[in-house]
Amino acid sequence: MRLKSQRQMALAGTGIFAALSLALGAGLMQDRAQPDVVKLGKGVASVETMPVSDIEPVMKTPTPRESAMGDGHASYYGTELAGNRTANGEIFDPHQLTAAHRTLPLGSEVRVTNPRNDQSVIVRINDRGPYHGNRVIDLSYAAAQEIGLIRSGTGRVSLALIT
């Protein structure tokens, strides 16, 4: 007798569960038939409620194109060379976002990214170098500070030429 009532309760519970599942499924299917709507507020300056698909995407301003140049070690030079002439003839200012590279044309712009913190800076090549070890670029003090290389003095960076 006891087993029979347990079976009946289990069947009743399963039936109720199935009925609830069907009701919820039907409700979800009906909800999907309606478009997504964004309500943009109330008031004089607000916009009427409209489907998301009707909203035109905002056009972004074109960004400069970048060509990856690889990675390597970077160092920086600070105030000890302030006032000296650079390879392009200007006077070095450690507070400008400039850099030295062995082969890039003077005046080129390069995005330098520190992969340890994902900070990047765009520098203008105005000098030749670095002539120490296997470094690929020498940054000004300001550029090194922007990407967090001041404390360590050198660090691994990724370079991308901006065209």
Write structural notes for this entry.
This protein folds into two domains: 2-54; 66-162, Beta Barrel (Barwin-like endoglucanases), CATH 2.40.40.10. It is 24% helix and 30% strand. It has two helices and eight strands, in the order H-E-E-E-E-E-E-E-H-E. The chain has helices at 2-33, 141-147, and strands at residues 37-38, 50-51, 66-77, 98-100, 109-114, 119-127, 135-140, 154-162. Strands 3-7-4-6-5-8 form a six-stranded mixed β-barrel. It has a two-stranded antiparallel sheet with strand order 1-2. The chain starts with a helix and ends with a strand. The model has no long low-confidence stretch (mean pLDDT 83). InterPro entries: RlpA (IPR034718), RlpA-like_DPBB (IPR009009), RlpA-like_sf (IPR036908), RplA (IPR012997). Residues 1-25 form the signal peptide. Keywords: Cell wall biogenesis/degradation, Lyase, Signal. Lytic transglycosylase with a strong preference for naked glycan strands that lack stem peptides.
Distinctive features:
163 residues; alpha+beta; Barwin-like endoglucanases; 6-stranded mixed beta barrel; two-stranded antiparallel ribbon; 2 helices; 8 strands; 24% helix
